[in-house]
């Protein structure tokens, strides 16, 4: 069938504007208004650094948004990045420059945080933070000018805490908690899929690290049903009671009561606990490294 192109009618700019507005309304009615369909899930793909030593993802800060790599840590609750004025512990690390963002605000408040592996210190600020398609406009975070040696390894610029606000050194609401409170997610769920390169002799410094799912659990990455367990201590760390321990098909005695509480911490490579139980766990392994597991 032959198609013929008709000559468009002569119309003024105002008439064309009214026509375009009408067409917009028609398309929204037919296909749905974009703003009514919030992005309910997102995935941040991670990098495995130095053979399972740490896992990092990326987020963007400021206007215009600039991307930074950050360690994803469920064992803390603060977001911070090394700033352009960082003088200690920031060699070869991409630095955040406050002057590069038109939406940056300095809170003029000192900030410091201590981990088992070191400390970071600087000042609090706020700006737009984006990750996996989600955005928090006035996110409080630390801009650090001093970082303990070895805490950051290029290309990592900082850390994103995924614990609860009650344990935040800054007192600020964590990025993920704001998204849950504002119902930005389809479901109030976070999930990690971590790769492992244990005993791989030719492992590279940077390898694919898995994924961090926000607002859903990727059903292609597990089988069976998810067992949901209530937190014995709400609003702090991600703590679960250990009810059973099996190592290489051998049962290991587990503590009871509050002694059985264990924190799920993506920011550490170690297993810690009472020496008697930790010794029994690792006694089942023939490859036990010379570490001190007792707390």
Automatic annotation (TrEMBL):
Domain Peptidase A1: 55-295
Span of the signal peptide: none
Record keywords: Aspartyl protease, Disulfide bond, Hydrolase, Protease
Coiled coil: none
Cystine pairs: 86-90
PROSITE patterns assigned to the protein according to its UniProt record, in alphabetical order: ASP_PROTEASE (PS00141), PEPTIDASE_A1 (PS51767)
Top-rank lineage group of the source organism: Eukaryota
CDD domains found in the cross-reference section: pepsin_like
Entry keyword annotation includes Protease: yes
Residues of the active site: 73, 265
SUPFAM superfamilies per UniProt: Acid proteases
Pfam families recorded: Asp
Sample GO molecular function, one term: aspartic-type endopeptidase activity
UniProt KW Iron keyword: no
GO biological process terms, semicolon-separated: proteolysis
Family: Belongs to the peptidase A1 family.
Protein name: Peptidase A1 domain-containing protein
Protein source organism: Candolleomyces aberdarensis
Higher taxonomy: Eukaryota, Fungi, Dikarya, Basidiomycota, Agaricomycotina
């Amino acid at each position: 069938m032959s198609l013929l192109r008709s000559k468009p009618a002569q119309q003024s700019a105002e008439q064309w504007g009214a026509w375009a507005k009408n067409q917009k309304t028609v398309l929204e009615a037919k296909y749905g208004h974009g703003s009514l369909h919030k992005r309910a899930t997102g995935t941040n793909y991670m990098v495995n650094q130095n053979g399972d030593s740490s896992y990092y993802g990326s987020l963007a800060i400021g206007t215009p948004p600039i991307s930074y790599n950050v360690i994803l840590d469920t064992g803390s609750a603060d977001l911070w990045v090394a700033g352009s004025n960082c003088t200690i512990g920031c060699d070869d690390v991409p630095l955040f420059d406050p002057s590069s963002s038109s939406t940056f605000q300095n809170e003029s408040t000192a900030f410091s945080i201590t981990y088992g592996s070191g400390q970071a210190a600087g000042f609090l600020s706020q700006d737009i933070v984006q990750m996996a398609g989600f955005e928090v406009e006035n996110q409080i975070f630390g801009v650090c000018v001093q970082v303990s040696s070895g805490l950051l390894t290029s290309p990592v610029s900082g850390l994103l805490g995924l614990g609860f606000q009650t344990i935040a050194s800054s007192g600020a609401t964590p990025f993920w908690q704001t998204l849950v409170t504002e119902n930005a997610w389809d479901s109030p769920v976070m999930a990690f899929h971590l790769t492992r390169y244990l005993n791989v002799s030719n492992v590279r410094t940077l390898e694919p690290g898995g994924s961090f799912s926000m607002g859903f659990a990727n059903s292609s990455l597990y089988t069976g049903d998810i067992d949901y367990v209530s937190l014995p201590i709400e609003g702090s760390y991600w703590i679960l009671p250990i009810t059973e321990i099996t190592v290489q098909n051998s049962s290991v005695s587990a503590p009871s009561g509050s002694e059985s509480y264990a924190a799920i911490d993506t920011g550490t490579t170690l297993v810690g606990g009472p020496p008697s139980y930790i010794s029994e766990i690792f006694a089942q392994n023939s490859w036990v490294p010379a570490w001190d597991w007792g707390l």
